[in-house]
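Moderator note: this is an archived Q&A kept for reference. The question asked for a predicted structure of one protein chain; the sequence and the answer are reproduced below.
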Amino acid sequence: MKKKLEVIVAIAVVIVLLGIGIYLLAGKKTDKNVEPEEMAQEQQKENEEGYSLIDMNNTENVKIENGVKENISSPLLKEKTLLGLRVSNIRLVAENGMTNFTADVKNTSSTDFLEREITIVFRRKDGSELARLRGQLPDIKNGETNRIDASTTADMTNAYDFVIE
């Protein structure tokens, strides 16, 4: 009788250990309703997310091609005059974990623009602030053109518009 009890307990322990082993070896469960391509994209996203703040799932005001997330909002890309400077050829692009804001800046005022720190304030469609990005504008003589080039690891690419302070 004692021997039968020991055999039953041993079998129960083996079954429990097997169940635990199978559970641990199975790893992540896969959703049977997910297509293989979607699963591969999800795995790529998980790999990239560990090193990037860029949200490739948020497609508001952007197009995404070949891992590059580029802002396509007409108000943001439209030429504008701010601080007596004409800002044109505007690009807001996220690539390789960095968001880059670039633009040509022409001094259209009657005086020389003296170097100064600026803050680019990105806004949502409702006018609320999305993010701020600091930059430096060099001296720009009246009638001359220079460039803004500011970068960050934060994702600002979904902005609807911007102003410079």
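Archived answer notes: Residues 28-34 have pLDDT under 50 and may be disordered.
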